[in-house]
Amino acid sequence: MAGSSFAVEQTHETGRKSFNGLARQYSAPVVGRIFGSCCGPAGISGSALAGAIGAALMVKVARITERKLPPGPERDKVVELGEKIERLRNVLEDVVDEDAEAYAKLVRIKSAHARGLESDQALERALKTSTIIPGAMGRAAMICINLAAELAEVAYRRALWDLAMGVWLCNAAVEASLTAAAYNLSEISDDAFRAKLLGKLDFFDNRSSTLDAILSTTRKRGVPTANSVATP
What we know:
With 232 residues, the protein is an all-alpha fold. The chain has a single domain, classed as Formiminotetrahydrofolate cyclodeaminase monomer, up-and-down helical bundle (Four Helix Bundle (Hemerythrin (Met), subunit A)), CATH 1.20.120. The chain contains nine helices and no strands. α3 runs parallel beside α5 (120-152), α3 (43-68) packs antiparallel against α6 and α5 (120-152) runs parallel beside α8. The relative contact order is 0.13.
């Protein structure tokens, strides 16, 4: 998050953001401070945090794989995937603060609206913002999952477990986004806005098949998954 206390350390070696640095920045006391100070529900901020950590795990896998591969097109592809996921991680990280701020504003406007101090239009704008931010989170997390499906085909075998965990964390952000959209749209009267947002939800239709594909690739490459461990 630009300008916040969550700036992630840079590694001296590569100048890339360190997963370990991210994990330290999101330590329990810091998380408690964010959510303890929120004026209301922090489900989207928490889901965005899960997604950001999931994306950081994916980037970690890309960096490990990059070091294991010889120079060539396959290595270049892994570098490209890692860079794309890193940019999306920044989006998810920003949502942690953005959603908390949007919700605080919505609470203030709802209170003022109830007293006749804010217009219907101002309330509608605040509701739209509180819907758009979770939508951006879900889209970023879903793209991370799609990119992870590509990465799973070439990722260093011993790092696949981290990739799978990153995918599940990003999926939590996707599911939270869809839940928030369904809830918030029920309060928005702008039919054009509702139709536009509902049209964008088609983007998430393939998430189950993508998750299945990643797990299938993981199994094929010889890494146990939760399902295979549970099966005798």
